[in-house]
Amino acid sequence: MGAVLVLALLLGLTIGALLTREKEEQPEETETESLWETVEEEPETETTEETKEAKDYPAPVYQFREEEVTVEVEGLEKEYTLAFVNDIHMISDFEAGPVTEESLPTIQQRYDEMFITNDGKGIPSVELWPEIVKYLNHYDFDGVIFAADLLDYSSTTNVQKLKEGMEELKYPLDKMMYLRSDHDYGGWYGGEAYTDDDGVKAQEDILGGDSMEQVLDFGDFQVVGINRSHKNISAEQHAFIDKQLDNGKPTIMVTHVPFYSEVDESLLDLSMQVRNKIYYWHPQAPNYVPDGETQGLIDRMYHGDANVVEILGAHIHASWDGQVTDSLREHVFGPCYQGQIGIVHVIPKGGKVTVNIHEGEETEEETEETETAETESTESN
User: Fold this and answer.
1) 362: which of 68, 130, 293, 366 fits an S-S bond (Cβ 3.0–4.6 Å)?
2) What is the rounded (10 degree) CA torsion for 213, 218, 223, 224?
3) What's the rounded Cα separation, in Å, for the pair 324 and 314?
4) In the chain, what's the furthest Cα-to-Cα distance?
5) Order of strands across the sheet that contains 340-348
């Protein structure tokens, strides 16, 4: 009798264990079915390519101001939008090693007081650089022009920061131009351990190399860059630029150091106000007097057969737009370290700007209005 009771008890325990196991497995079965339903439904809510790209490249947190310029080109069949980035003056050294001990106070002062946003937030340029990269990736530009002085000086840390950002850019090399100038190279704070030559060498593998032959060809027009424009151009560089101008294409000429105006004194007034000297190529400039090669290029752009439709410059750390001759305009972009980025709209002659990189985005005001409306609706309920 005792044996029978033991067997019955064992049988009951076995059945109970099986029932318990079945109950424990049931939620996993339901969860698996739910997961597959989600996978099967995903294509129905698939986003467009444009939305996917915005998702892949999130918008920057910093709200940049945009300095927009429109260039009209005869015979252009479509509209182009170019980004223009200049004068970031990145500083990332805060201890001796890449720079000398005695240079640290000067560097710190420049970091704290000179190269910060002018929006009341005082964001230093090195923190702005990753946001600039996000901005360029989030939107779709037909080309990106880096118009020099991205660094405040050359050092191993500054160059590394620059490289990290450049490597994240989504654009192919033939759609980007990086013109260098004195600040991109200057090893002024490195002592004997780091010279200007080291700065030049450090730039060799960034965006295809430090070439004097800088051209972005868009078919109906071209962008020709003057590399190292803080110095007079060499005969070889002049010959290369002349060759590009010989093809007859409408040309946007890009330089870091701007050129003088023959007809508008306001550029001189601005330069004296901001820099207290003539801070562009001019026969009376303290640092930028054109020699025969540079003046020859200026003469061809101003009065020759170059078919230059616009000159774009930087360097002064202030914005200017005006005529350098009766028929040729120059635009000087303000510096990016102040929290702005340039946008160049290249459009058919007589046309209007139609491309809006922000299309479909809510403005800050619209977002606030939506949030207020949602709050009021919730409170009324």
Assistant:
1) 366
2) 20
3) 15
4) 122
5) 65-73, 340-348, 80-85, 143-147, 176-179
Of 214, 302, 307, 197, nearest to 256 by C-alpha is 214
Question: Does residue 283 contact residue 291 with C-beta atoms inside 8 Å?
Answer: no
The predicted-structure confidence for 176-223, as pLDDT tens digits, reads as follows 999 999 999 999 999 988 888 888 888 888 988 888 999 999 999 999
With H, G, I as helix, E, B as strand and everything else as coil, classify residue 116: strand
Residues 6+ apart with CB under 8 A from 229: 148, 179, 181, 255, 256, 257
Query: 84, 312 in Cβ contact below 8 A?
Result: yes
Residue 118's contacts (CB-CB under 8 Å, 6 or more residues apart) are 338, 339
Rounded Cα distance, 156 and 169, in Å: 21
The 3-state DSSP class for residue 291 equals coil
Report the candidate in 71, 70, 64 with the shortest Cα–Cα distance to residue 85: 64
| pLDDT mean over 107-114 | 96
**Residues 266, 110, 336, 145: is their CA dihedral positive or negative?**
positive
Question: Other CB atoms closer than 10 Å to residue 168's CB: what's the count?
Answer: 13
Q: CA 344 to CA 331: how far, in whole Å?
A: 10
Q: Are 93 and 107 in contact (CB under 8 A)?
A: yes
User: Residue 344 in 3-state DSSP?
Assistant: strand
Task: Over range 28-38, report the average pLDDT.
Answer: 30
Task: Tell me the CA distances in angstroms from 18 to 11, 12, 24, one per residue in order.
Answer: 11, 10, 10
For residues 24 and 208, what is the distance between their CA atoms, to the nearest angstrom? 61
Are residues 313 and 145 in contact, defined by beta-carbon separation less than 8 angstroms?
Answer: no
Distances in whole angstroms, Cα of residue 333 to Cα of each of 123, 251, 256, 318, 341: 20, 18, 10, 7, 9
Taking the whole predicted model, whether its pTM rises above 0.85 is answered as no
Per residue, what are the HEC states of 46-104? CCCHHHHHHHHCCCCCCCCEEEEEEEEECCCCCCEEEEEECCCCECCCCCCCCCCHHHH
Residue length of the chain: 381
Cβ burial, residue 304 (10 Å; 0-12/13-18/19+): middle
